[in-house]
Design a protein that fits this description.
By secondary structure, the chain is α/β, with parallel strands linked by helices. Helix content is 30%, strand content 25%. Helix 2 packs across helix 3 (64-76). The longest helix has 17 residues, at 31-47.
Amino acid sequence: MHNLYHHIERATPARRDRALLTTDNGRVITWDELHARTASYARLLLDCGLKSGDRVAAQVDKSPESLFLYLACLRAGLAYLPLNTAYQRGELAHFLGDAEPRIVVGRPGSVSELGALAAGARVFSLDDAGNGTLRAAAASQSESFETRAVASDDLAAIIYTSGTTGRSKGAMVTHGNLVSNAQALVQCWGFDGGDVLLHALPVFHVHGLFVANHCVLLSGASMLWHAKFDARRVLEDLPRATVLMGVPTFYTRLLAESGFDKAVADHVRLFVSGSAPLLLDTFEAFERRTGQRILERYGMSEAGMITSNPLSGERRGGTVGLPLPGVAVRVADEHDRSLPVGEVGGIQIKGPNVFKGYWRMPDKTREEFTADGWFRTGDVGRLDRDGYLVIVGRAKDLIISGGYNVYPKEVELAIDAIAGVAESAAVGLPHPDLGEGVTAAVVLRPGAQLTEADIVRRLRGELAGYKVPKRVFVVSELPRNAMGKVQKNVLREQYRSTFTG
């Protein structure tokens, strides 16, 4: 039984009329409706002529129908391609051209553009209320569907990750990857049918699409479904929830609310943080305010969740915990040799959660795996004497802003394409709300008169909003070492207090 949806069917409560999902505007979706709606969506996709392994791309707002679409792809043996709603034309052209989806689903206002970018694909619409041509077309389909059998290594999703060369790579995630990771998380985090997850994460991201949804769907639990994170609305619903999953920004914003106290948080048995490093100050402030310790974990698009602080046991601030069941983690030197406890090196992983490779990039896939089969995560860290993993840095200068990955090279390429720009360098700086704020230093060509506002304005529409620099500094030259390499550490130090005063 390799199809993830078979496991969801097995976990369905005996009373299928029980609520699975309640939206923030009061709409209730039962388990019975989940199976009926995913069946009709699966039938629609296959009636459009799709075959096993074909791709379905979606750039849509969060709604119950967006969840139905994802799960219908699993049921039908198709590969789901979630796209961040902030992506702009240049980014979408690459994703759709590379993945070649047979069906694309977008917001009503973007259907024409998506159709032009996805040559030969059939395009449907879906709005933030779950209405559109997709829902209308599925309404006439049967609500009965036999979930297809798949192999463990059959493709379930393609998750695009930003690339240091400016072009994103498509991580091929299999049913086996999803099943193994979901089962490990349900076990480690103690999910059961009585849990209520407050789901305020986006569903184009591994955290919200896989981690949050799968924990609920494989345990027979339920969720409070918020279209987006709003600290005050989350505060209102917390007394009804038992689990909250979020990025560090969620917790800094909750702590900024005067009404957030121990009484409000008392019904919640577990607060989980991930997608970006949780500052120790935030970890400690949260414990002082609520008496609870946030459980921090570590994951990535290519492997789902990798490590987690324990549910029962010491949750160590500043660490991302212990390897999940079935997952192996080692810290290695530049020759892929394991390092002793406490020494800093590259984090490498192995396990059933690790993806099968990068879409249409066999050479890149081989490059990222060691000769003995370990995946090089690109992160740098150390293991302590008890096996807890501490991440001390990120290779290739990855920026994580508000829980989203931003690779500097992608930002730099967009800036360098602006007439009048000679060169640029992008870095992440400490930001009290976002964790890191994207910042750029820009050198202009002789005679150019560009200002910070000019550069930011030209980047909007080219890059997702979270990738657009929060500050741009026009400089006479970039700091370089003797070999001519830009010293980003110097830039980070020079502008460190930009957002923190």
